[in-house]
Amino acid sequence: MASKREKISDSCSRCLSSKASTQDGKARVRRVSIEGNIAVGKSTFARLLQSACPDWEVMAEPVSHWQNIEGGTSKGTGASPQTTVSNLLQMMYQDPLRWSYTFQTYSCMSRLRTQLQPPPARLLSSEGTPVQVYERSVYSDRYIFALNMFELGCINSTEWAVYQNWHSFLVEQFGHQVELEGIIYLKAPPKKCMERLENRGRAEEKGVELDYLDKLHVQHERWLVEKTTEIHFEKIKQIPVLQLDASVEFQSDPEVREQFITKVKTFFNTL
């Protein structure tokens, strides 16, 4: 009897009939981000994708790094072990006027580090359509969260100018290594996101209000639907976006999960 992994692989291959283009004998790995409001269901959706096809590699959002800022001496003989000195995510929520710029700087750098990680060997040797999927990206860090904090007055004009300057420099320097070829936009009403946020009970998010989620929803709509956000990278302006209705309970509905996976496979096959 075929193993579970073989069945998944066969199913994936049937849905993705076209071969991935290659360079130097290696498969071209597509890069896609999952975007959406806080608590819209990105992590749940990411786990769904990871289990759906062996040609897909999901890179989780580095939340744990934001919650555990490490301090200590540099590595070397006799160096003290690094210890957690602060929870930057919590600090940002508790005092956004003081910590928003610091948080957005660190979150963007951690996202950049994630997007620069090379794809695993199994994706490079794939005969299907290999895809690296990121929970959010260096682009949503700037055009959703940092921009929102600037518009709220939590990041001042000087900080915003500095942030945009180094963000543009780094993205331009790393070029195709951090470019995306597609975006999956998980869309749900802010009230639904608020309900899910309260249900998951993340300690740092206790003070998050519906108005904040409303503003983030508007930022997502401006960037990914209305296309009115000022974007500074030509390729990102034209990037294809797959919208999925995340207001449905896809985690508990097998039929909806199957519909989502089918739409995602078709989307990936067009990139």
UniProtKB/TrEMBL annotation:
InterPro entries: DCK/DGK, Deoxyribonucleoside_kinase, DNK_dom, P-loop_NTPase. One of its GO terms (cellular component) is mitochondrion. This is deoxyguanosine kinase. Transmembrane segments: none annotated. It is an enzyme of class 2 (transferase). It catalyses: 2'-deoxyguanosine + ATP = dGMP + ADP + H(+). Substrate binds at residues 61, 93, 104, 136, 141, 205. ATP binds at residues 36-44, 196-200. It holds the Pfam family dNK. It comes from the Eukaryota. Homodimer. Coiled coil: none annotated. Belongs to the DCK/DGK family. GO terms for molecular function: ATP binding; deoxyguanosine kinase activity. Keywords: ATP-binding, Kinase, Nucleotide-binding, Transferase. Residues 32-268 form the Deoxynucleoside kinase domain.
